[in-house]
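Can anyone check this?
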Amino acid sequence: MRTRCDQTPAWALLKSAFETTGKAFDVRDAFAADPQRFARFSQDAPHVFADLSKNLIDAATQALLLDMARQCGLQQHRDAMFAGQAINSTENRAVMHFLLRNPPAAQYIPAQAAINKISDKQAEVEVTLNAMLAFAEQIRADDQITDIVNIGIGGSDLGPQMAVLALHAFADRPQRFHFVSNVDGLELLDVLAECKPRSTLFLIASKTFTTAETMRNAQSAKAWFEAQGGQDISRHFAALTTNLAAAHAFGITTTFGFWDWVGGRYSLWSAIGLPIAVAIGGKRFREFLAGGHAMDEHFRQAPLEQNLPVRLGLLDVWYRNFHGFASRSIAPYSHGLRRLPAYLQQLEMESNGKRVDAQGQALPFDTSPAIWGEPGTNGQHAYFQMLHQGTSVIPVEFIAVKNATHPLPGHNSKLLANVLAQAQALMLGKTDGGGHKHFPGNRPSTVLLLDELTPTSLGALLALQEHRVFVSGAIWGINSFDQWGVELGKLLAQDIEPRLQSGDVSGLDASTAGLLKRLL
């Protein structure tokens, strides 16, 4: 059994350290006192450089956080995941999305890995991956297919959409990609207005082939296809699902599945990533997987002191539970990464938005921060006012790309100047006697820097974020791999939907009944 953070000796020491030095910590004084602070609080990881030096942390606090990680059994919990143990305890499942990006020759040393037959599972992954990439190349070579429409929601939408947009510079075919997730029919109609049945491929992404929003959109897409004279459902529809019978009943013969040890928010590495593979090709999709694998190995093997996912995850705990910071703003200074904040919202808030520990006991402390943001420089002209001068301190995570993937002169230098200036302004602030132009400063930020936004570096960045969430969840003693909170509203919607036709309000609370009558 894991030890929860608040039950470790280090937790009490951290509380004391926060009261004595952490609460009044000023990063400007820290830089003045330590000329080597940037070097001490920055590091290289595979394909990602991280500057943590502008955060409200010193060497003593970091050492205590690392002690807490050891006392919580972080390393053992990490090793259990990589050995294929059922660390998703409420569903009795292993958590092995890392296998999806593992090269075929990778070997696992832990005896537990052999017991859990990881090599057999990896062989299954490779068979599915080869088939998926072969299909992707087939679609890429088909000049009659001009539009690919991915119909999914949650992990079946956020990841693939984010990655296709991020890697647009590597999309070397003229095909267009569309993503439909919202059950509001306007989104589907907007997409269909740009498509023709004979030149469109629909990808229905639902593990169970029962997801309510996805199947409603899929049925409407099929009806449109047939009404517009479309023929051969089996050619123009494919399914990313494990429910082969339901897919065949729909008319789909091309299917690619995945496994119950792949959570939806970790599934873009699997068959759910088919739109990515069609966009960038099989070779580059394997580069994307290789970037993720490189970060896996860093997380698995690097000492805790120089393990970037560990350092970020512990910093998140320090801010959430000691400083009381309730949110983190994501500011990718890259147009390609414009959907990254939405992707990270699901990754972190669905994973760690929990109020009980792995044993079902109520937690006496807060867990996941709220994740939100917009691309820079757009965000500067929207909400950065609050970041600089608001009453709440909100840590900011800047993501910058050194080399642009476009040829326009003058743009990238201006973009990079802005990201450096915003991080500097948050830290330094500016004194003004009148108050209205006073910037308090000492507001924390992290900068993650990629040399280029490539399939490899994107893979590494996303795996870094996955493991960082794993770390904070492990410290909090929660199960980061279930999502029971998603289910209740879906269940209630099944009861309410027929009432919108019948008008029956019996058994409903007064508010829901009143609103339902109003809608009728």
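Reply from J.R.: I decoded it. Residues 118-140 form the longest helix (23 residues).
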